Amino acid sequence: xxxxxxxxxxxxxxxxxxxxxxxxxxxxxxxxxxxxxxxxxxxxxxxxxxxxxxxxxxxxxxxxxxxxxxxxxxxxxxxxxxxxxxxxxxxxxxxxxxxxxxxxxxxxxxxxxxxxxxxxxxxxxxxxxxxxxxxxxxxxxxxxxxxxxxxxxxxxxxxxxxxxxxxxxxxxxxxxxxxxxxxxxxxxxxxxxxxxxxxxxxxxxxxxxxxxxxxxxxxxxxxxxxxxxxxxxxxxxxxxxxxxxxxxxxxxxxxxxxxxxxxxxxxxxxxxxxxxxxxxxxxxxxxxxxxxxxxxxxxxxxxxxxxxxxxxxxxxxxxxxxxxxxxxxxxxxxxxxxxxxxxxxxxxxxxxxxxxxxxxxxxxxxxxxxxxxxxxxxxxxxxxxxxxxxxxxxxxxxxxxxxxxxxxxxxxxxxxxxxxxxxxxxxxxxxxxxxxxxxxxxxxxxxxxxxx
Length: 452
What we know:
By secondary structure, the protein is α/β, with parallel strands linked by helices. It contains 19 helices and 14 strands. A hairpin with a 5-residue loop joins strand 4 (about 90-105) and strand 5 (about 110-120).
């Protein structure tokens, strides 16, 4: 009894640590998996216990299982400061891992204990400080996204001009940062210019700079963004808003890598890689004569079109978990679960604002939620109202009259049928039956309906 009590106490202690811990036997099979390890890896205990520990590191990453085996064989601790774990959804989680051999009372090695520490926050900090990003920042298993990742790896090392198109919030800015970080110019500056945010009368001087005396108030020479990006990359966001008057001058920069500063008489030569982005569709602007055709062809050497989130439904669970992990790490709070009803709402929303809107929704939920489980009431009111309106406009299944015992029986069968049809997801069932989730919950309780 004392031994069982001590074992239970030890498991409770290990389950309340913030660091992931799991143990394996001499055969490499998992024998213990604490709560933090579940949160970091995305695997539940039942998915990992009794199975090879290598599953959480993913295929093609034998280094960590090898270090674990080496620790047991030699009886010495081993560590790896930069490792990774692959979650069941395919998300890559950066971790720091330590492996320590376990000895019996007789000194015989009987297994190994491993500790894993989530480095997501550390990676976020380094990315912001160094302004260097990797594909870990932009995830997805959608065929369109996988094709983009594959092509980017091939062209990043070149100096080819790149055009990124896509709706607002799809990640054009992030993709530009990833391309720069994967290029040979990664140690040089990445200068961003939002062509839509600058007034037309200031845009030329901001892009190309000016010389002393070019206009009233120009007391000294000022370098433009192209000069600041020399030897590096310039990212021209919202290139579709570039005025026609400037497009001819910009065309010369693309062709000859030289330009005249505002008021200058001598050309300025620069060595820059140009990445541009737009949410308008340059081809349509060319047809409408709002964008120069020759400039479009110069920009459109290598084109990436980022798909909207509404067409990437299979990626949604992965993206939701990835963003939630990042936000929890940044706020230094424990990882939050998402209830089935809240997840159903998140998976069935169209996201006109794409990934940026999804991130705002999850950030709102984490601020409002006081527990570790995000429920529908923690989501923004606009999202709750969207689904409430959708339910009101949807044809409703008529419930039988509950006044008689026969009517109650029919009502019970109707609710049960709807619950089974919707895999016992209460929010979907309530929608179909035309009632609030709380009303459905009360009826289930009064009619003694519960999932077996």
